[in-house]
Amino acid sequence: MNKFVKTFQKLTALFIILNAIPKEVQADKQGEWHNECNTGGNHGCIRFPGGQSVTHYPKQPITTERYLFPRDNPVSASKPIDMTKLIQALGKHEIAMETYRIPGKSSSRNNSCFLSELHLDRSIWNTIPNTSPTIFQLKEFPYLGFTFRVRSSLSGQPARVGENNFLQGWHNINDYENEFRSGCGFTTELRITPIMEITPKDLSHLVHDFQFPSGDIDLKLQNAFFGAFSLDGYSRAGPKPVVTEDAGTTINGNNVNIRLSAVTCLINGQANHERDFGTKKSSDITAPITTKPVDIRVDCGAATYIEPWIVFTDNNDTGNVSSTLKMVYTDDRAKIANVGIKLKQKNGNYIEFGPDSPKKGTQNQIKLTKEFPQRNEYIISFTPELIKLNASQRIEGGRLEGLATYTLSYQ
């Protein structure tokens, strides 16, 4: 029997260094009432000259520490990805946009009510169903998500008048396009400051099959925006004010570089194994015929947090989940063979075959045994047995072989 190896050996792994950048300074957006708009009707028109304003989240770029974890079990209880450090580095922040200064008007207050519009960058998010407030999950790194809330901070004499007393509470963000009432101006200046609260969330408990790349993960947040704010008018009982110019404010992402090293182990000694049962007569195979045992050894070195597992796959029948390896005739692989091979462990159990996958929880994975109590060296031992499948039928002559692979999983 030929034994071929497939180990998926690759080194991959997380942590926190902060790089300071200059603090951004924002200026107020000074509104100007004007009549240079064709709105049809007695609407007030206002503009906020100037370009788009920008602020950032997180406040500065983040590069994580080099963090080691078992390649096939990133949320291992003994060595999980340290999401706590990443969440702490990102931090929960209330980010104030530029303040809109709305001059007072002597006319009806109906022409001076405003709402804030918030747009999220849907290209970088998935939403987690049935969460309140809605959790927005990063597509690039699904272990990380965010919740958002917004509100308006009002100042000036109108801030204490009428419904403005009730418009400064928080609003949960549950969609990509949002608007919320911000305030109404009167005869004196009203100042409206939109505020966005960003809270990072650990979503590692929700992720089960994310494939980690080798090396660093760049979340590319610097190419996306968390939110884009602008102001518009709304009507309480009559015509609404028309905002003819407002470049708005965006909350752009800062770069977050997560450095990962998904740790694996090394095969100790021979990786490929071949056993030959020799030439046998059909009448000789009345009981299992054994050959020299096979030992597969794995050395995990200093990685005490890794548990190596193994799964064997029948190369002649990849869907085989039984304990019998299929044999085929080398000159006619479609010909049915009345023999098979079983792999008997020292404890008397037979190895059952499974899918060719290192993923944790793969069917018929077997946990390797520590060979020495004080060393991170593991072993699985078994003896191949040649068996007759149907004792009442003969075995056709010819050369037969069984082919299997084994896949190591580091958990």
Could you explain the architecture of this structure?
One of its GO terms (biological process) is cell adhesion. InterPro entries: Adhesion_dom_fimbrial (IPR000259), Adhesion_dom_fimbrial_sf (IPR036937), Adhesion_dom_sf (IPR008966). Residues 260-411 form the Fimbrial-type adhesion domain. This is Putative fimbrial protein. It is a single chain. By secondary structure, this protein is mainly beta. It folds into two domains: 17-262, no CATH class; 265-410, Fimbrial-type adhesion domain (Immunoglobulin-like, Sandwich), CATH 2.60.40. The protein is built from one helix and 35 strands. The strands form seven sheets. Strands 3, 9, 10, 12, 13, 14, 15 and 17 form an eight-stranded mixed sheet that branches. Strands 23, 25, 26, 28, 30, 32 and 33 form a seven-stranded antiparallel sheet that branches. A five-stranded mixed sheet has the order 24-1-35-27-31, with no helix packed on it. It starts with a strand and ends with a strand. 32% of the residues are buried.
